[in-house]
Amino acid sequence: MGPRMTRSAVKIAAEDGQDLRAAMPPPDSPLAMRGMTVSYGEKPAVFSVDATFPARSMSAIIGPNGAGKSTLLKASLGVIPRLSGEVWVFGKPLAQARDRIAYVPQRASVDWDFPTTVIDVVQMGLYRKVGLLGRLKGLMTAQAQACLDRVGMADFAHRQIGQLSGGQQQRVFLARALAQDADLYLLDEPFAGVDAATERAIVDVLKLLKSEGKAVVAVHHDLSTVRDYFNYVFLINVRRIAEGPAQTAFTAENLNATYGGRLSATHISELTLSGGAA
Ligand SMILES: Nc1ncnc2c1ncn2[C@@H]1O[C@H](COP(=O)(O)OP(=O)(O)OP(=O)(O)O)[C@@H](O)[C@H]1O
Ligand SMILES: [Mg+2]
Which residues lie closer than 8 Å to 187 by C-beta, 6 or more apart? Predict the structure, then answer.
């Protein structure tokens, strides 16, 4: 159901062997895809990827710079077109379930000079839910304020977003996602450039979402915290390398395959031997 594009060599290759994948994913999977290929030019950024993220989980998308992690998220949301493949959100085609997804983009991709206040940014998360009816404005402000409070940013409501530190901006974008009251939260590097206290605050909010039965899928770079924060991992380097429960899929072998031997053996054994609390 992606946009029709001219058949290219990439598309033909991506469709090879897809008949085996015709089966629908489990209906309670918050996000599943089959044969997803995305290309900005000749070379695919994401190639023929299958994924089945589990319900009521915190899942990490892991891979090196340029591996296609952000591309995978954006194509899953329909923000960028896919060349081929199918996406299901809670067992439904993307178009029928997009309003159950909240998305926090990679911070570097946001225009922070845009002149708007913190509370306005959070309220943008609510528009889709209640429309733009003026009489609901008071209610919306209260809800937006409550979401800011959850991320410890209540005192910054009337600040311009461009006048916040990076970690504060990240909290505000999480508040906006919370305001959407979604069932699936897609976050692109939510911990990039934030201090330990902010990271802890964000993790606590995400774990609370999980305990409420929601699903969180986050691009994550810090391999040392994967086992603490996430119970499911998806490893990608253009192609899917592996996916599964962190206990079984976050292994030295899979990390080597994902990073192409660029991580030292000592580092990898430290990462995969240290037990996690997830
Ligand atoms: N808008 C674009 N136009 C052309 N190429 C792009 C575009 N966005 C990304 N790419 C390319 O697609 C590939 C995947 O990029 P993507 O942003 O998905 O990687 P990533 O895994 O999120 O990396 P990072 O860890 O650095 O955020 C890269 O080679 C990148 O250069
Ligand atoms: Mg990225």
Answer: 103, 104, 174, 177, 206, 216, 217, 218, 219
Sequence-distant (6+) residues with CB within 8 A of 231 are 57, 58, 59, 245, 246, 278
Q: How far is the CA of 105 from the centre of ligand 1 (A)?
A: 13
DSSP H or E run through 85: strand 84-89
Phi and psi of 73, rounded to 5°?
Answer: -65, -45
Going by pLDDT thresholds of 50, 70 and 90, the confidence category of residue 154 is very high
Beta strands in 90-231 (DSSP E): 92-93, 101-104, 184-188, 215-219
Tokens linked to 127 = 């528009």
Q: Rounded to 10 degrees, what is the CA torsion of 127, 128, 132, 137?
A: -40
Ligand 1 neighbours by CB, cut-off 6 Å:
40, 45, 63, 65-71, 106
Mean pLDDT computed over 213-235: 96
* φ, ψ dihedrals at 63, nearest 5°: 175, 165
Q: Name the residues around ion ligand 2, CB cutoff 5 A.
A: 69-70, 106
CA 242 from centre of chain: 17
Domains along the sequence of the chain with CATH: 9-273 (3.40.50.300)
